[in-house]
Design brief:
By secondary structure, this protein is an alpha/beta fold. Helices cover 37% and strands 18% of the residues. The chain has an eight-stranded mixed sheet, with helices on both faces. Strands 7-8 form a two-stranded antiparallel ribbon. A two-stranded antiparallel sheet has the order 10-11. It is globular, with a radius of gyration of 18 Å.
Length: 312
Amino acid sequence: MPRKIIIDTDPGQDDAVAILLALASPQELDVLGITAVAGNVPLALTEKNARIICELAGKPNTKVFAGCDAPLKRPLVTAEHVHGKTGLDGPDWDDPTMALQPQHGVDFIIETLRAEPAKSITLCPLGPLTNIATAFEKAPDIIEKVEEIVLMGGAYFEVGNITPAAEFNIYVDPEAAEIVFKSGVPIVVMPLDVTHKALVTKPRNDAFRAIGSDVGIAVAEMTDFFERFDKAKYGSSGAPLHDPTVIAYLLRPALFSGRHINVEIETKSDLTLGMTVADWWGVTDRAANATFIGDLDSEGFFELLTSRLARF
């Protein structure tokens, strides 16, 4: 039986690759729907980008929903400086022809969790946690229905990428992150500490391009565009593919290692707003609430990713 998942996302080139990896793996993953949230770019672009990627994958029957267009309590901060004005800069995209679902993404999450047996759906947030937190606040009865949340966000050793202290997804909506981390649902976190080890070096990007398909070439063009930012900022050899680590973890958890620890979200400080305060060394008596991933087998990760993308 494939694992039932809902992908909550703000595409973003790396989100796009995560969606492609999930849609390439129907034996293991049943994508019940994709809910878009405002984050890397505004909602009108994230829902459009999600549909573009479903069409690229040849999966236009995938259900895509638009969710929240702003954080719970704050103005939206976006990241066009990383992802370009469309969020998917790199390839030349046609407008999608598949329809956006009429239902609000949050209502889809609530309705789907209520209809399924307890602990049978995994939520995969790849952007700010606004949709998930809104669903939990609106319908607390669904919280116990969630099997697991595997999310990309936060950092400990790598600290911040949008401020000195905070990672982008958590910083955009720290109040939402706090709700999710305090929900009691089993959580697995893919922080910058692990995603910065998933670097698309030139040989890895050449391998995507060598697939020769529309998908392979589009992924190569997206990472070509995306990497210019990280190379300039970090002096790294390529772009980190943050979000595909979430899907890779569902497919091959043995590629990853981490610790079950306490993670708290800073929501009050001007200096460290959105920081994921991860008790990696166990120096407090706060109860563990998340499995915080610290390392991955990058060769194994890229072998998995390239072989799955070649299925299209």
